[in-house]
Amino acid sequence: MAHIQLIKQTSSGLLLPATPESCDFLHQIKTGEWIHADFKRVRNYAFHKRFFKLLQLGFDYWTPIGGAITPRERELVSGFVEYLCESVGREHTPALSEAAEQYLNTVATRRTRDTALLKSFEAFREWVTIQAGFYTEHIYPDGSRGRRAKSISFANMDETEFQQVYKSVLNEPPRVSWRVFYL
């Protein structure tokens, strides 16, 4: 199977060979012979580089702050405190919230006692891509779910989809929270 590059030269939709290799291939095709092709727009390398410069800038300003307690765990503890308050007929007090926060801090300290927080550009890129909404979701044997970022390599994503990723990352609509760099 040949991979050729074509360029649209006129408003009529005429496609012409863009490279000498493409020209050689088309010269082998007889006039009137039908060929079949799957077309996709060639990725703009400069645009791709700009995207990675943006990611690198975000990565450089980001400082890992933990992650030992997940948002779901925080919700669970907060919900449990609310449940206890409702069960005994009392209002939620700041003292209870403080006790819950102290408990979560203790758990976080235990979890990270022997763990150094390391920055990983690949993990950062994956997080940004997932936050932008470009991921596949998997269900694991234990019933838990996980998300994996879609590949943004030239071979796996065309220009149109890459532009959507870029717009989503740059907050059209706001999906990636860039505030994490200012904490």
Notes on the protein architecture:
- With 183 residues, the chain is mostly helical.
- It has helices at 20-27, 45-61, 71-88, 94-111, 121-131, 159-169, and strands at residues 6-8, 15-17, 135-139, 145-149.
- Helix 3 packs antiparallel against helix 4.
- It has three domains: 1-39, no CATH class; 44-64 and 118-183, no CATH class; 66-117, no CATH class.
- A hairpin with a 6-residue loop joins strand 1 (6-8) and strand 2.
- The chain is built from six helices and four strands; from the N terminus they run E-E-H-H-H-H-H-E-E-H.
- Strands 1-2 form a two-stranded antiparallel ribbon. The chain has a two-stranded antiparallel ribbon with strand order 3-4.
Number of domains: 3
Largest sheet: 2 strands, antiparallel
Secondary structure: helix percent = 40-55%
Beta-strand residue fraction = 5-15%
Mean pLDDT: 84
Q: C-alpha Rg, in Å?
A: 26 Å
Task: Provide the succession of SSEs.
Answer: EEHHHHHEEH
**What is the strand tally?**
4
Choose one word for the global shape. Answer: elongated
Distance between the termini: 52 Å
InterPro entries: DUF1367
Protein name: DUF1367 family protein
Organism: Shigella boydii 4444-74
Pfam family, one: DUF1367
Features:
183 residues, mainly alpha, 3 domains, two-stranded antiparallel ribbon, two-stranded antiparallel sheet, 6 helices
List the helices and strands and how they pair.
Elements: E1 6-8, E2 15-17, H1 20-27, H2 45-61, H3 71-88, H4 94-111, H5 121-131, E3 135-139, E4 145-149, H6 159-169
Antiparallel strand pairs: 1-2, 3-4
Helix pairs in contact: 3-4
